[in-house]
Amino acid sequence: MGHKFSLVLSRQITDEESVILQDAGFADATFATDSLPTNADVAVTKIDFDDAAAPSLAEAIESALETVKKVPDLTVPGLTVPAVPQSPADDSRVVVGEVVEKPAAEAPEKKAPAKKAPAKKRSTKKADAANEA
Q: Using CA atoms, how far apart are residues 112 and 57, in angstroms rounded to an integer?
C-alpha cells in the first residue's frame, strides 16, 4: 500500500504542463479538473497520488511539492491526506476485543495508598472561651 494524498493546484494546467509533471515523476498520478476549495467558481487541476516508492508520507508529499515547482507560476493551495486506520497494536493481552489478564508473575504489585494522618484541629482562645460558656 502506498502513501495516498492529493494536491490541488492553483489553476488548471495545460497539456504541455501535464507532460512536464508526468515526465518529472507524476507518471502514476491521476490528473482531474476540480474547483478551488475556497472558490467553487475557479477551475483547477487536482492530482491524486498513491506513492508506493517513497519511504514515508512526508517524503512523498515533499517530492510532489518540489516537482510542482518545475512548472512556472504554479503553486499548491491545497493538500488532502485521507485518514489512515491504525494497525492494531501488537498487544498479546487483547484477543477479540477482550482484555486477557496477565499471569500473577508478570503483573506488577499494587502498592496500598499511603494513609494521611488526621488533621489536627487548631483552637483559638475565643473559640475555647465560647465553648466553655
A: 47
